[in-house]
Write a structure and sequence with these properties.
242 residues; mainly beta; 2 domains; 5-stranded antiparallel sheet; 5% helix
Length: 242
């Protein structure tokens, strides 16, 4: 079974003013179980708003986090400002925006699934890279989402063997959305779970600031919890240890 090598997978856009190569943080494949069609989406690693190739200060002020989601045809830029009222999502079509765009996805071609808690604990203590898949289904829309992502934080106990994934950011779909563009339905999230049949997400959404003098003051952070039935799998690439 193949698994994405996230540490060596990139999105690169090419444009007259700048070419930017950005590492991938996570992937999601949306499968329409009626038609059999599927489409892949990729979350890029975040960076900060900057000015390029100019003298003086490079960070833009007020600053914001820059991230985005890409497919082969479309993209969604996600700019997270200091306050949620200034958040800005920009949809675009790759061929209309960039001179060129490459998604260079590298894979581990012989990844091995870890079948139980004991093997997960052993792989963690052996410092093997862990790649996770979380599958979500929606009966009403007859869609399936396969999330794939590196596990950056893993909690384990050896006896009896227990594990708890806590990692992100990833992207999760909103199956109840009525938008016509799938790429606009995603939320950034973190995920935790300690078994193979359930996942708990915390989505990045606007949230009121409790200590603010103005009760309408908001920011954007991971603030909305979603508990979902899921199928969780953990995989390791072929060992490179001697």
């Amino acid at each position: 079974m193949t698994a994405i090598d996230f540490a060596n997978s990139y999105m690169t856009w090419f444009a007259a003013g700048n070419n930017a190569r950005i590492q991938l943080d996570a992937a999601c494949t949306i499968v329409d179980e009626v038609s059999g069609n599927e489409e892949q989406f990729y979350l890029i690693a975040p960076c900060r708003a900057e000015r390029c190739y100019v003298p003086g200060q490079l960070f833009r002020m007020p600053n914001y986090e820059f991230s985005g989601i890409w497919s082969q045809e479309e993209f969604l830029l996600i700019r997270t400002q200091w306050v949620s009222e200034r958040d800005n999502r920009t949809y675009g079509v790759n061929r209309d925006t960039w001179d060129d765009m490459h998604l260079d996805i590298r894979h581990f071609v012989e990844a091995t699934e870890l079948p139980d808690r004991a093997s997960i604990v052993a792989a963690t203590f052996a410092n093997q890279p862990l790649i996770a898949r979380t599958e979500l289904r929606n009966e009403a829309t007859q869609q399936r989402a396969v999330l794939e992502y590196p596990v950056r934080t893993m909690n384990v106990l050896p006896n009896p063997p227990q594990f708890q994934v806590d990692t992100g950011p990833i992207i999760i779909p909103n199956f109840s959305s009525t938008t016509t563009r799938q790429i606009e339905d995603f939320a950034m999230a973190y995920v935790v779970y300690q078994d193979f049949e359930q996942a708990e997400f915390i989505r990045r959404e606007p949230v009121a600031v409790p200590s603010a003098e103005d009760p309408a003051t908001q920011t954007t952070d991971y603030s909305v919890i979603q508990l979902s039935p899921a199928r969780n799998e953990l995989w390791v690439p072929p060992s490179t240890r001697p």
